[in-house]
Design a protein that fits this description.
This protein is mainly β. The protein is built from one helix and five strands; from the N terminus they run ββαβββ. The chain has one domain: Ubiquitin-like (UB roll) (Roll), CATH 3.10.20.30.
């Protein structure tokens, strides 16, 4: 187990990739999602290659419509 911070909230997860983390949370198939890992934006094409490390900070932003 390791600790990561997802949108500022501490989470305990098993060794995982960014892609698996998003899939486990039902976010992988959603459109309009941007992700930053330790303050660096990660392109969606790279989500499956990024392995999470202890104390990583992940920010997920979901686009919404409004007016």
């Amino acid at each position: 187990m390791m600790t990561i911070y997802l949108n500022g909230i501490e989470n305990q997860v098993n060794d995982s990739s960014v892609e698996k983390l998003l899939k486990d949370r039902g976010l992988l198939e959603k459109d309009g999602i941007a992700l930053a890992l330790n303050n660096k934006v990660i392109p969606r094409a790279n989500w499956n290659t990024i392995v999470l490390k202890n104390n990583d900070k992940i920010l997920i932003i979901t686009a919404t419509q409004g007016g």
